[in-house]
Each structure stands twice: as C-alpha cells, then as structure tokens.
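@channel sequence for tomorrow's demo:
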Amino acid sequence: MSDLQTDVLIMGTGIAGLTTAMKLAEKGFSVTIVTRESRPEITNTMWAQGGIIFSGDEKIAREDLVKDIMKASAGTSYLAAAELLAHRSGDIVQEILLDKVHTPFAHGNDGELLFTREAAHSRDRIIYNGDMTGKAIQIAMMKHLDDRARFPSISFLTSHTAIDLITPTHHGVDISQRYEEDQVVGAYLWDQKARIVRKVMAKFTVLATGGIGALYSHNSNSEGARGDGHAMAKRAGAFMSNMEFIQFHPTTFYDRASNRRFLISEALRGEGGRLVNNAGEAFMKQYHEDAELAPRDVVSRAIVDQMITTKAECVFLDITHKPTDWLKTRFPTIYAHCLENGIDITKHPIPVVPAAHYTCGGVKTDLQGRTNLNRLYAVGEVACTGLHGANRLASTSLLEGLTFGYVAAEDILARVTDTSTYDANRVKGWELGREEVDLTLVNQDQSTLKQSMWNYVGIIRSRNRLARARAMFRELQDEVGKFYKNAVLDDSLIGLRNGIEVAHMVVDASLRNRESMGCFYLKD
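structure tokens (generated this afternoon):
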C-alpha cells in the first residue's frame, strides 16, 4: 500500500475536472487529478464536436437560453439550474476558455467570434472550432495546466483506476466510526502499472468521471465512460437521480468496425444537412415541425422508425448542396473520417444511425456540486443538478462541465482552509486478492452487458424488455460477485463490476418511471 495525501482529489480529466483543478490550484491548494487512461487527454470532452454556448451578458439572451433549455427538456429541467447556467456561464467562458487558456475558436475576417446554431436553439449562440471543439478545449486546458511554474501544486495520476470512495462508515478500523457523519475522505486507487492499491486521503473529493455511454454496444463515448463514478458514489451512499434519461445522438457514422461510433455533429444539421431514408426521401417534417432541428430524442426515434419501416440498416444525412470548400473547412474532421471510410460528403450523403451519447441523470447534487455525502462533490456528466431534466439541449454539455466545475471550486475554496484531512491510520488498507481471473470471461460478460443495454434498455423500451434486462443483470452480478472480492485486480474487472451496478440503476429507474418524456420512451 502506498498512501497519498492531497487537499482535493479529482477523478476525471475532462472539462469539468480540469476547471475545478485550475481554480483550486490558482490559490495554491494541492490537487491530485486521477484518470484510468495512460494519457489524460483521452476524455469525452476530447470527442465533443459541435461547440459550446456563449450567450453573452444581455438579459434577453440569458432568458432565451433558459427558455430553450426548458423547451428541449419538455419542461422537466430544474429552473434554478438553468438560470444559474445562463447567468454565470458567459463570464466563466470568457475567463477560462478565452482569456486564460486561449482556446482557438473560429473567428470571422473581422476578428470577431463566429456563432452557429444547433437543434432546439432559438438563436445562434454556439462558438466552435470546426468540428473538433472539444479537442481544442481539452488541448488548450491541458497545455495551460502543464505549466509547472504556474501550477506546482497539481499532480496527475495516470493509469490509475478508482476502486471505491473511502467512507469511515464503511472503511473505518473500529465500530465507533460507523456512527460518524456520512462523508467521503478519499479513495482507493488501483495503480495499473505497479499493480498496487493506493489509499489517497483528501479533504475533498470531486467526481468528474463522465457518463455511462460506453455501457451500450453502440455509443459515441470514450471507453472510460462506463459509470465508474456513478457506481462508487452509490456504494458510498450518495443519492442518484434521473438515471433513466439516456440521450442518444441521432447521427453517428454507420459502419461495422467498432462499438464506438464516430459522431456526426448536430452542427451538420444546424448548417442545413437533411435526413433522408434509403429511397432519398426527406422525412423529418413527418415527425416534428422543426424537422432536422427537432430535439434529439425526436430525431433518434424518427430514424429508428424509418429504419424499421424501410427495413434499412441506416438512414442518410445529406449536405451535398453546400459548397465543397466550405464543407472541408467547416467540418474537416468529419470530412476526413468519412473519406477514409469511402464517403465523400461533398458528393454523397452520410450513412448514420443513433448511438448512446449523454447521461442526463447521475449523482444528485445541489447547485454548488455538493452531494448528500459531506466532502464529496460531483461535476459534469456524472452529476445531476437537474439542468437537463429528461433531455439535454445541444451544446450544454461542455458548458455544464465548465460552469459547475467552476462553481464547485468556489464552494470548496470557501471550506478547504477550515477542513482537516481524515486520519489515514483510521482507514483500513485494501486487501489484495490472489485468485487469477479469466479475462476472456470478463470480456464476454462486458459484451453481454453492452448488447443487453442496447437491445433492452435503449432508445425504445418496454416493460418486458426491462424485466429481461433486470434478470440478466442480476445473474451477471451474482457471477461477478462470486470472484471479485478474492480476485487479482484488473481495470476491466473493476469496470465490469461498476458497469453492472449502473445498468441496474438505469433499469430500476426505467421501471419506476411510467411516463414517456424527453429521451425516455416506454412504448407500453
């Protein structure tokens, strides 16, 4: 066991975690940032294409953003969360992304920022960098934080998989600790290279682990988006909310190469792309007055309906009417990816299918990122402030991570000086198992989990499908539980254990909800 101590432990290296880290480190507090990846830039932020909302200071612009968030969620978003985002995000975008890390957003010939529009937005308010906005933000933030002279108190732990959050009630060395307040005082981390468990004690712990999209066989997420943060928080006693609301992106590139599907940004439809079926017929007007710019859940179900009706494996997104040079400049990443796969988007429509994309629910927090467990915060996609309700407005994901990562840091800064680190000697060490695990079986179980989530807990659900999924997940959980405790640790085994627990959360939440709304659709 190799124990560590830090003021703040942050799990996740996307926009939410990095924003929190930046604000804390600017004040000189020690921050340890953890990722299971060998390279910290591998995050869902990195894959985000479309852009980030920058709505400005005008009162009418802020009010319109709140209205659009509420409209996209079918009126189910938490109004206070939407108002906080609308009122605070503009200044935070300016401070962090523009003034400090100098994200290279697109500018016009006059030097002014360029704005675009995506589905369910009432105005052009999204700034972008071609079709790789997330990558531009991720790289700019990492470069800024890599300045050791500016941020000597930041440490990155790469290739470290979080196993469990440490709570005195669960991990204390004597019975009296069971009666202490519910709090998180650090975490156990699996060092993949040294093959040891590190006990990290922290005054505050921040979950910024992203969503659960990778639990589906077709998804647009990084492989790390498998619900590790959700599972650890639930085991520690944190409340979960809105776990049935999984948003599927309507348009990902259709191929048979991998589970992770390449995202075809919503900005393509925002710029005039039309969805057509295999007969070349535009169909979205049949489903919604906003056609291609309808909310994502509507577009996703429309595509599935067209695929069933026409007995096709995909539909097509046609933007060939746009000028060739403009397309190559506006969407260079999409153009290159499609060309590598035999599709020239300037001449041919793009084959697309929906895929799991964003988790609207998560670990329940207040508007400062606090959970019901003292010292534990959650920010970004892993958290549920109620901002998205039953459906997320396009391009609010990066903004949510940035804004609530910033706000959480403010709250921690107000508390950190008066908080002491919990005594590591009063926390049990991790007992390593010795039984070798057949990773072929683990991989097969992961495949079963992904297929079952896609088939039974996907875009369109039914009570029979959900009941089948629950039975399968119980069996999987029993099997994994038999050997996990005594097993030699491995990242994939930890991920499987967490994934099964999160799958249960989604199924249970789906069975509790008897009303189709937003991105949750129950056909019976």
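heads up for whoever presents: The first strand starts at residue 4 and ends at 11.
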